[in-house]
Design a protein that fits this description.
By secondary structure, this protein is an alpha/beta fold. The protein has 15 helices and 8 strands. An 8-stranded mixed β-sheet has the order 3-2-1-4-5-6-7-8, sandwiched between helices.
């Protein structure tokens, strides 16, 4: 049997739709799973109903303890799964400083770049916890919780500087409906997983403005080039962006009804203001924060990212999306695949 392995003790930190889905998935894989949630009222609700309101029709097994007591959740586990919004990762880790043995494998699910420091999530984990990079794994790819929770066939990638740790996470998650590949390029995987959310906002703007399939195809293709450019500048490998955390994640988040980032863009394309859209959302659209951090990265590295920069202006400088499209379409003519810097 290809999926047999010894059960592990796992702490999942973050009981949003994705964290809850992962906890249920790992429980189905016969692991001992604990789930941490920040808000005590959500803990009480989920323990009472054994459901997460963000996952319609999905039951949380009674055997999964849900608590807001972090120290209890992370005690004596082999794996810690980080499933909170990227801008809250550091504050969560600060509460765990000095409490995590070096041999524990920490799995990052968060897709973003930290505001201010411009660090990737694995870098934040390594810095705050002084945890070995070889025992940090990032799991990214096209994986909407709404579909994984219903056991829709899904493929993702586990990336780490250590092939042993990546393989351990592959074995932990792998199932008949959840396929996991491994990759040594954690830089590229994290950059792809984070920056695709900006292009998803742009894709939603296309939908909100009724621009059509031609526009969206051009946007996704050129958006992938922008992700690849900044990814290579950060030390990622070009081929990584043709994989699951690059083009795969880009396709799903730009076109799916489940995508929060695409939704934000669609509402902007219809004429709504960003602050009003965010005020009405119960979940985090990571691309909004990532757009600000990427704007800082562009200034720092001098990368050519015209789509990302126009989305920044639309979100934070109140630029009319139609004017942004006009400026993108009327840039100087160039060859198709150009100016990808090599380190």
């Amino acid at each position: 049997m290809p999926f047999r392995f010894k059960p592990k003790s796992v702490a999942v930190l973050g009981a949003g739709s994705w964290g809850t889905t992962v906890a249920i998935h790992l429980y189905k894989r016969k692991n001992v799973v604990r789930l941490w949630e920040y808000f005590s009222e959500n803990v009480a609700l989920m323990n009472r109903t054994h459901k997460n309101p963000l996952l319609e029709g999905i039951a949380i097994p009674r055997e999964i303890p849900i608590s807001d007591q972090l120290d209890e959740i992370i005690e004596n586990v082999s794996f810690i799964i980080i499933a909170v919004p990227s801008q809250t990762v550091r504050s969560l880790l600060e509460k765990m400083r000095g409490k995590i043995p070096k041999d524990v494998i920490i799995v990052n699910l968060s897709k973003g770049i930290e505001r201010g420091t411009l660090k990737r999530m694995s870098e934040v984990i390594h810095e705050v916890l002084d945890h070995p990079m070889d025992n940090i794994v990032t799991l990214h790819g096209p994986s909407h919780a709404e579909e994984v929770s219903r056991e829709v066939p899904t493929a993702v990638v586990a990336a780490s500087t250590s092939s042993e740790s990546a393989l351990a996470v592959q074995k932990l998650f792998m199932s008949s409906y959840f396929r996991v590949y491994t990759n040594s390029d954690i830089v590229g995987v994290e950059i792809g997983g984070a920056i695709k959310n900006i292009i998803a906002i742009a894709s939603g703007i296309c939908d909100g403005m009724n621009l059509g399939d031609n526009s969206k195809a051009a946007l996704i293709t050129r958006g992938l080039l922008e992700i690849t450019r900044i990814g290579i500048l950060q030390g990622g490998k070009e081929e990584t962006f043709a994989g699951l955390s690059g083009v795969g994640d880009l396709i799903v988040t730009c076109g799916s009804k489940h995508s929060r980032n695409r939704y934000v863009g669609e509402e902007i394309g219809k004429g709504r203001k960003l602050k009003d859209i965010l005020a009405g959302m119960s979940m985090v659209a990571e691309g909004v924060e990532t757009c600000q951090t990427v704007h800082e990265m562009v200034k720092k590295h001098g990368a050519t990212m015209p789509i990302s920069e126009e989305i920044y202006k639309v979100l934070f400088e109140n630029k009319d999306p139609r004017l942004a499209v006009h400026h993108l379409m009327n840039r100087d003519p160039v060859t198709e695949r150009h100016s990808i810097p090599k380190k």
